Amino acid sequence: MSSSALKQAQGFLDFVNQSPTPYHVVHTVKSKLRDNGFTELSERDNWAGLIKKNSKYFVTRNASSIIAFAVGGNYVPGNGFSMVGGHTDSPVLRIKPISKQSKEGYHQIGVETYGGGIWHTWFDRDLSIAGRVFVNYPESGKCVAKLVKIDKPLLRIPTLAIHLTKDRYTKFEFNKESQFKPIAGIVKNDKNDTTETNESSGCCKGEDLSDEQFESVKSSVERHNKELIDLIAKELSIEPSQIEDFELVLYDTQPSCLGGLNDEFIFSPRLDNQVTCYCATDAIVKASTDDKLFKNSGIQLISLFDHEEIGSLSAQGADSSFLPNIIERLTKLTANPEVDLKSELPNSYLLTTMAKSFMISSDMAHGVNPNYSEIHEAYNKPHLNDGPVIKVNANQRYVTNSAGIVLLKKIGNLSRVPLQLFVVRNDSPCGSTIGPMISAKLGLRTLDLGNPQLSMHSIRETCGSADIEKLVSLFESYFEHFNSIEDSIFVDGVDN
């Protein structure tokens, strides 16, 4: 592996190790964008007069989704956008609203499954917690979201010893509600307790309570294990009583790392889809340096959404108004190219822009597993370190078509990035991506693509270390050259 490929792989390792939750992903992306001249905007503000040519911006929603864009120095109204879309979330275990439980002398934490994880891989792992905590500051009257990531093993979901199973050779099965609870410690002075507790709560009845005593929902200290709350408070340097609420998930404390005889693999959690988050961010930063952006006639954009793993139907998912809202703002605030981007245009410019734009829906692809090679279609078997995979499905689970392949082939030739093709067997199910919903919502030409990996949705996944550089290079070239290539590919109408 070349030194540049190794550097990109290490950059990704650092990225994923900092980002155990969508909130951390967005925070990490924001830090890199700020360091490279991107200005933060807010959806709560009017953007008239704020957007300028040859400038770079980003905006977040719910602190778990982010859109960043760079306006070319030669941009004029109606020109196309080159876009890359991905997602910030991964299958995970989330702490329940009332998580305080104990059984057989053990503290337990109630958790809820999120997404379609390979859940048996979560057993016997060194787990900790991360997420966001809403902290109350009584002196200012503000409640502020704080990120938390506790860097030590706290929890474990223990398997049942093979000696105690009825049939040692059956496949591993378990009940996700009753047999999938992490243990967090030993209950002091309670060795003989064989009962399971799960304290009821929700609303206080309010009877015979003063205004000071009444709480519409029990406090976090009452709903969760005291030692857990104390640990979170210590991490944030606050008092436990300041914790109003939180959204916390479990994560594997084993770091992402290089592996293989020649460092040809990355062994990591959350490859799906933090590979896209890292590569798209690095690519738009490189493609929007001052000299390159000044010459560009379009708008380069990355959109990283939360909630893809559960269908994307949320205020911050790919099936939300987030991307359409941002595109509408940008196409309306570009009326006069002589005086930067201030006044407003009619909606027809949005429609013109969408007809000239393109979205790469980037999510991980299924690399061929040598132990299950028969699962793959005989002539479509992507391999790790052989480049990004163009994903095709006749039933539109992926929205790639021949026009998109022609475009990506041209981009691949310019960047000297090899591309692979993938289609599922006719007797196999097929997953999907954010591509179909964005394509349908915006009438936007879209192609599905992603780096190949093994063990998708496991707590530890595998991809090729050299493929990180390839995807960055492909995206960078796409951002730089899209507008000069796009109008040479005729789909609707005839070349006159």
Helix-strand blueprint:
Layout: H1 3-17, H2 22-35, E1 39-40, E2 55-61, E3 65-71, E4 81-87, E5 92-103, E6 106-114, E7 127-137, E8 142-149, E9 183-186, E10 197-198, H3 220-223, H4 226-236, E11 243-252, E12 257-259, E13 265-268, H5 271-287, H6 290-295, E14 299-305, H7 322-332, H8 348-356, E15 358-362, E16 365-366, E17 389-391, H9 402-415, E18 420-422, H10 435-442, E19 445-450, E20 452-454, E21 461-464, H11 467-486
Parallel strand pairs: 1-2, 4-14, 4-15, 15-19, 16-20, 17-18
Antiparallel strand pairs: 2-3, 3-14, 5-6, 5-10, 6-9, 7-8, 7-11, 12-13, 13-21, 17-19, 20-21
Helix pairs in contact: 1-5, 1-11, 2-5, 5-11, 9-11
GO molecular function, one term: metalloaminopeptidase activity
Protein name: aspartyl aminopeptidase
Keywords: Aminopeptidase, Hydrolase, Metal-binding, Metalloprotease, Protease, Zinc
Computed structural class: alpha/beta
- Specify Rg, calculated over alpha carbons: 25 Å
Kindly, what is the distance between the CA atoms of the first and last residues, rounded to a whole number of angstroms? 47 Å
Mean pLDDT: 91
> What is the number of E strands?
21
